[in-house]
Amino acid sequence: MTSSGQPSGQYEQSPSGQYEQSYERYQGGSPQAERVLFERLARELMTVQRANMRAANAGSPARVQHAKSSLGVENARLRFRDDLPEELRCGYAQPGAEYPATVRLSGASGIGQADGAPDLRGAAVRVEVSAAESHDLLATNWPVSHAKDAREFVAFAKALAGARSPLWKAFGLFVKLPLAVGLTAATRMRRNIQAATRHTVNSLAGETYFSRGATLWGPAGPVRYLLRPAGTAAPAPRPDHRDPNYLHRELAHRLATADVAFELCLQRYVDETRTPVEDGSVEWREAVSPAVPVARLTIPTQDLDTAQARSAARRVEELAFNPWYTTDEFRPLGNLNRARKAAYEASAAHRQGLRFATEEPLRNRVLGVPVGAAFRLLNRAVPWHRLPLQLSLLNLVFLRKVLRRFNLIDTDVQEAPPRAVPVPLPPDERLRTARSYDGTYNDLSAPAMGAVGAAFGRNMAPDYRPDLFDTPNPVTVSRQLLYRENFLPATTLNVLAAAWIQFQVHDWVNHRRHPAGTKTVEVPLPPGSSWQNTPGGPVENVMRFAENEGIHVSDGRPPVLFANTASHWWDGSEVYGADEATAKFLRAPDGGADLRLEEGHLPIGQNGVPLSGFTDNWWLGLSVMHTLFAREHNAVCAALRQTYPSMSEDSVYHTARLVVSALIAKIHTVEWTPAILATEAIDLGLHTNWEGPPDNWLNKLGLWLLEAHSLTGIPKTLPDHHAAPYSLTEDFVTVYRMHPLIPDDYELREHHFGRRLETVGFTDINGAAAEGAIRKTGLANTLYSFGIAHPGAITLHNFPRALQKFEREGELIDLAVVDLARTRRRGVPRYNDFRAGLHKQRIRSFEDLTENPETLARLKDVYSSVDEIDTMVGLFAENPPTGFGFSDTAFRVFILMATRRIQSDRFLTVDFRPEIYTPLGIDWVQKGGMNSVILRHCPDLAALLPRGASAFAPWRQVPPTSNGGS
Fold first, then answer.
1. Domain-wise residue ranges, the chain
2. Which of 631, 629, 634, 626 is nearest to 592 (CA)?
C-alpha cells in the first residue's frame, strides 16, 4: 500500500466492463487451457460427492463441502454503512443501502457429522439487490485456504472422500494426499487444517468468517472480505457438546431473544507478495491490510422451530451458493475462485439431480489397461470382425473406450476466463417430464446442450484447407467415381431401409444454408463441360450452390464451426418440428393431442409438400415414414386417453411424443442397424445397448470384469456425456452420406395379388409429386412395393443419377458434388487422415483400398496420391467386413456415436421410466418395433413381413395371379 493508503496494483476497465489486472496467471498458460483443467476437476468433485453419499448412507449426493447446515434463514438484512469510504462505493455498495439476505451457517465437512467433531465452519450469504442482481458471499472461520490452488483443493477432497473413521481419514491425509500433491504440499495442507480445526466452537454467532481468495471490488481492485461478530452478543448457556446438533440449538436459543449480527469488512490488496491473488493459502494479515468495516449483516430475532422457519431452512438447503453469482464489478479473482465456478456449478447440479456422474469400477480400470493393450496389439494382425464372437464383442467394447477418450472434441465456445452471472432460474417444471420443442433442457444443468442452434462437434480436429477445396475437381470425382452406370443392389435390404435412414438424418442434422443466390460455393467445371445452375437458366462453366452458414469465432479463424438447425437429440423433430410454433401448428386444430391427418394422410401445404416437422428433399419414401409415425403418434394418444382418462391433452401429446421418439430410437438401434450391418456380433452388441447382454454367464462375467456399465441396457443407466458436451459431429454427418441406397426407378405393386400398378422414376415421386403417388397407391401398397425392392449398395459407381441433376429450392445441383465440396469446406479430414484419426492404419497405396482394376485405374487417374482421396470416396471404395452395408472406417464413428445418442439423453436413460412415460408408454416401447408399427396401421401386410428378421429385410413377394394381372 502506498503512503496515501491506496493499493499499489494497477487496474484498468476493459471494454467488457471488467477490471483487469496484469498478474492473474492461468494454469496451462491460457484461460482456455485452464478451463479444460477445471472441467476435469469438476467431474472429479462429483465422484467425491458420490463417495460421501455412500459413506453417509444418503439417498442423494450432498454438497462436496459444507454438507451439514446449522442455520438457514431467508429474512436477514445487509446494510452498508452511512460512512462507507468513497473509494469503496461502487455498484450495490452505496452508503445506507440495505438489502434482504439469505444466510446459511454450516460445518465444512463433506459428510454430515456431530458438531463436536473437528471441523471448519462456513457462512454463505446471498444478498438480493433486485430480481436480476444478487451477490453470493462465501467464507469459512479460518483466514486461509488449506489449498493453494484448485488442483490441491480437489486432491484434498478426493483424499478424504467417504472417510468417516479416524483411520480412513489418516490414510487419506498421510498416504493419498502426499501421492497426489507431494509431501511438502501435503504437510502444509495438513497443518493448515489442523490449526483451523483445533479450537472448540461454542457458537457460530461468535466466529469470524474469512473469504477464500480475493474478489474484485470495482475500481478499488482486489479485496478479501470477512464477517466478524458485531457488538456484544447476548450470553447463552454453555452448549452440551455431547449433543450432535448443539450448534443449531445454541443459535436457536440465542435468536429466540436477540438478533445475531456480523460486520462485513474488507481487506484491500497491497502487493503480490503479502496479499497474493493467485495463492489462497497465504493469509492477508491485518497488520499489512487492515479490515475496513463496510456493512452490517443482521439475522433478526426469530423462532427457528416454527413450521414457517423449518420450511425456509429447507428452501435454503436447496440453494446452490456460488461466488460467481454476482456482477462483473465484484467478480472473484485467483485460481481457486476461477475453479469454483465450474466446480460449484457441477456440484450443485449433481446434488439437485440435474447432472450425473458414472463411476468406472476399480476392477474395470485396472484390468482394462492390459486387456486394452492386448487388443491393440492383436488388431495389428487380426481385425475385430475376424475374431471369434466373444472376442470380437470385447474388442468392440475396448475400441469404443478408446474412441470415447480420444475422439470426442468439445466445440462449444466456452467462456474463458469465467464471467460473473446472475443466479440461474430453476428449470421449468414441465420440462422435467416432457421434451422441449427445440431440444433445450434435455440436460437440465446445461440447457443449450444439443439444442437447435448448437454447434456440431468433432470426432477429429478439423483440417481446413482452402487451397485444396477444388483439388481434385469435385465434378471430376463425381463423374468418374460416383456416377451410377449400372444399378448395384444391396440384396439383404429393402427400400424401406433407404427411406428410414433419410427419415432419421432429418431428425438429427441440418446445416443452415445461405438463401439461394446470395452466398454461393463455386466449383469450376472441367474443360469442355457446362451446367445450368437453375432450371431453364443459362449454360455456365461453373457449378454453384448455396454456402453453409458458419459460426464465426472471435479469434478470426475461418468458419469451421457450423450450427445444427435441428436438435441434436433423438427427439422425433422430423415428425414434430424443431420449434414451438411448428409443433403447435401440426397438432389438431381443436388443440387436442393428435397430429393433423386428412383421411389418414398428412395435410398438404401450399407448395404441394405435406405439413410435417421437416420436409426438405421430400419424396415418396419420406412420405411413407412420416405418415406411418404420425399415425403412430395418434394411436399412442388414443391408448393414453383410454387408459388414463384424467390426463390433459397437453400431457397426452407430450407423453406420446416421448413414446414415439423412444420407439424410433429403439427401431434404429436394434432393427435398422443390425439389418445394414448384418453380423452376429453387431446384432448382439446393439441388443445389449438397449436390453443388456444375453443371459450367458461368460458374457456377463467378461463385462463384469471389464465393462460393468454394459451389464444393463443403456435405458437403465445414468446419462453420461463422457469427454465432451453432447452433440452430433461433422464426422458423423460424413459417414451417414448414404445416397447410393436410393434407387432411380421403382415398381409399385398391389399387395393382395402382386399386380403391378406402375413403374416410376425418382423424379415422378419427388417433391410435391410424392403425395399424389401415396394417395393413389395407398400406404399399404407403397410399403409392400418398397418392402420387396432392394436399395442400392453403398459403394462407388452407384450414386443415384436423379440426384446428380437434382432441383432443390430453385437450384439445380449435382448432390454428389455438393457432398464432396461441403465435406472439404467443413474441414473433415481426407480419407487417409480420417482412418488414422480413428486409430486405423493408413493405406500406403491405391491397391490397399480396392482390388477392382477399373476402380483402381480411375482412382489413380483422379487422385495424385492416396492422401488426396476424398473421405466419402474412400468410405465407398473400402472393402467392408462380411455382412456390412458400409465400411469399417465409417463403422468406427458409428459405434462411438450410436451409443452416445442414447447414453447422453436423459429421456432414454434416467428418465426412461413409467413415472415419465406412463406404464403404458414404457410397455409400448419395450414391446414395439417396426413390424408392430406397420401392422397397427396396415394389418393386411402381416403375412408379407419377413419371418425372424426386421421389416428392413426383403419381404415375401406375392406372385402375380391370373386375377391380379402382371
1. 12-233+240-351, 359-413+443-958
2. 634
Whole-angstrom Cα distance, residue 175 to residue 160? 11
Peptide bond into 939 cis (omega under 30): no
Angle between the N-to-C axes of helices 335-351 and 31-55, in degrees from 0 to 180, rounded to the nearest 10: 40
Q: Which residues contact 849 (CB under 8 A, 6 or more apart)?
A: 843, 859, 866, 869, 874, 877, 878
Residue type, 35: R
Contact predicate 837/526, CB 8 Å: no
Q: Pick the catalytic residue: 385, 506, 601, 626?
A: 506
> What stretch of H or E contains 370?
helix 362-379
Alpha carbons 444 and 924: distance in angstroms, whole number: 26
Contact predicate 823/874, CB 8 Å: no
Residue with cell 492386448: 374
Tell me if the pTM is above 0.85.
Answer: yes
Any idea what DSSP says for residue 481? I
Bridge partners, residue 137, by sequence: 125
Q: What is the CATH number of domain 12-233+240-351?
A: 2.40.180.10
Give the range among 405-419, 606-620, 652-666 with minimum mean pLDDT: 405-419
Per-residue pLDDT reduced to its tens digit, 184-217: 888 888 888 787 778 889 999 999 999 988 999 9
C-alpha distance across the termini of the chain, in Å: 100
How many other C-beta atoms lie within 10 A of the C-beta of residue 426?
10
105 sits in which H/E element:
strand 98-107
> 248, 250, 285: which is closest to 270 by C-alpha?
285
Q: How far apart are CA 125 and CA 659, in angstroms?
A: 44
Beta bridge partners of residue 861, listed in sequence order = none
Q: Do domains 12-233+240-351 and 359-413+443-958 have the same CATH topology?
A: no
Catalytic annotation on 506?
yes
Give me the helices (H) in 644-768, please: 649-667, 673-676, 680-691, 697-706, 730-735
Q: Which of 439, 461, 438 is nearest to 561 (CA)?
A: 461
CA dist., res. 627 & res. 937, Å (int): 10
Distance CA 334, CA 339 (A): 9
CA atoms within 13 A on the CB side of 70: 31
**Angle, vertex CA 133, rays to CA 130 and CA 138, nearest 5:** 115
Angle (CA) 73 79 85, round 5°: 145
- 463's enclosing H/E stretch is none
**Which residues partner with 72 through β-bridges?**
104
Residues 6+ apart with CB under 8 A from 400: 895, 896, 899
Torsion from C-alpha of 599, 602, 604, 608, nearest 10 degrees = -120
- In 382-488, which residue ranges form alpha helices assigned H by DSSP? 389-406, 474-477
Length of the chain: 966
In the chain, the amino acid numbered 946 is P
| Of residues 930 and 158, more confidently modeled | 930
Is the separation of the CB atoms in 576 and 464 below 8 Å?
A: no
Please tell me the distance from the alpha carbon of residue 283 to that of residue 280, in angstroms, as a whole number.
Answer: 8
Cα gap 912→900, rounded to integer Å: 16
The DSSP letter of residue 670 is I
Q: What is the pLDDT of residue 25?
A: 77
Contacts of 329 (CB under 8 A, 6+ apart): 17, 19, 90, 91, 216, 217, 218
Give me the residues paired with residue 459 across strands.
none
Q: Return d(Cα 439, Cα 578) in angstroms, integer.
A: 8
pLDDT in tens, 702-732: 888 888 888 899 999 999 999 899 999 999 9
CATH for 359-413+443-958, options being 1.20.1050.10, 3.30.70.20, 1.10.640.10, 3.60.9.10: 1.10.640.10
From residue 837, give the alpha-carbon distance in Å to each of 236, 326, 841: 69, 43, 9
Cell of 611: 405439413
Overall average pLDDT of the 891-909 stretch: 95
